[in-house]
Amino acid sequence: TLLISPDFSCTEEVLTIISLLSVDSVLYSPPARRDDVLAVRKKFISSEGDHMTLLNIYRAFKKVSGNK
Fold first, then answer.
1. Which of 12, 29, 55, 59 keeps 20 to 30 A from 66, CA to CA?
2. Three-class SS of residue 8?
3. Range(s) of the domain holding residue 12
């Protein structure tokens, strides 16, 4: 996928997904707020699969945190 990503102009997205998959988890679920967390996560779920869900989460993070 990484090798052909330039053909589809999605190299940045592929590298982001690879990076997110290389860490334990980008999702934090405090037990006391489980229901709240699940409700928020539903906003990011993609019918295209878990990798796109991770990309949606990353994009939302970048949007609120800027380039910090």
1. 29
2. helix
3. 5-65
C-alpha–C-alpha distance, residues 22 and 45, integer Å: 20
Kindly report, residue by residue over 1-58, the tens digit of the pLDDT: 899 999 999 999 999 999 999 998 888 888 899 899 889 899 999 999 999 999 999 9
Token pair 């019918």: residue: 47
Q: Is 22 helix (H, G, I), strand (E, B) or coil?
A: coil
CA–CA separation, 42 and 63 (whole Å): 18
For the chain, first and last CA: distance in Å? 28
| 6 CA to centre of own chain | 20
Residue with tokens 């999702």, as numbered in its chain: 27
3-class state of residue 49 by DSSP? coil
Question: Which SS3 state, helix, strand or coil, does residue 60 take?
Answer: helix
